[in-house]
């Protein structure tokens, strides 16, 4: 992943964004409500075996966060800078520790649907139950990404394995994991043999 230009971000973001000195590709900012948000980018090939960059969005102290348009604009500027520096696939997985996945899912989809430049991107989402817990994941890629078709196919295959079609809903988590590992390993072997 290419480094994001913090100066570009801060020229447009309503909140001042800082880069973590101790961790690469991690940023943070304070909101007007005293909430510290961490935004991180890390490689993740568990959902899209050919590779993606996962964006993490974390409310550091888990404080109640009011509706804050400046937060949304700051996050949007960071994501736009990511795509300006990287024609890669971005992955978003909702945090599941507090049971607010469906709420985050709705916010994420509303944000994307209202985003003025959404025509430049492809958004794919998937949701379903895994071990009795709602899960949501999304991938975003620029429409001109040369890996777009492959990434969409891998994303949809993984969603099918994890959340299942009716034919696969009877599979245990262990069986889903075995099928998933097989898919990841076979994809990496095919890439290696090319």
What does this protein look like?
The chain is an alpha+beta fold and 194 residues long. The chain has one domain (6-193). Helices cover 39% and strands 24% of the residues. The chain contains five helices and seven strands, in the order αββββαβαββαα. It has helices at 6-12, 69-85, 101-114, 148-163, 173-193; strands at residues 18-19, 26-30, 36-43, 53-59, 89-93, 121-130, 133-142. A seven-stranded mixed beta sheet has the order 1-2-3-4-5-7-6, sandwiched between helices. The longest helix is centred in the last third of the chain and has 21 residues, at 173-193. The radius of gyration is 17 Å and the shape is globular. The two termini are 23 Å apart. Residues 166-170 have low confidence and may be disordered.
């Amino acid at each position: 992943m290419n480094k994001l230009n913090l100066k570009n971000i801060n020229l447009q973001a309503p909140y001042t964004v800082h880069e973590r000195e101790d961790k690469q590709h991690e940023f943070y900012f304070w909101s007007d409500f005293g909430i510290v948000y961490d935004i991180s980018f890390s490689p993740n090939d568990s959902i899209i075996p050919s590779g993606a960059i996962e964006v993490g969005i974390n409310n550091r102290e888990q404080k109640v966060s009011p509706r804050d348009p400046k937060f949304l604009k700051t996050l949007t500027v960071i994501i736009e800078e990511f795509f300006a520096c990287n024609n890669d696939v971005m992955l978003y997985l909702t945090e599941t520790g507090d049971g607010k996945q469906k709420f985050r899912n709705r916010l994420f989809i509303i944000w994307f649907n209202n985003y003025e430049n959404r025509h430049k991107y492809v958004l794919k989402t998937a949701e379903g139950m895994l071990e009795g817990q709602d899960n949501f994941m999304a991938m975003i890629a620029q429409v001109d990404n040369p890996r777009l078709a492959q990434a969409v196919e891998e994303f949809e295959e993984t969603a099918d394995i994890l959340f299942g079609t009716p034919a696969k809903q009877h599979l245990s988590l262990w069986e889903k994991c075995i099928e998933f590992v097989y898919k990841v390993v076979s994809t990496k072997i095919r890439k290696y043999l090319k």
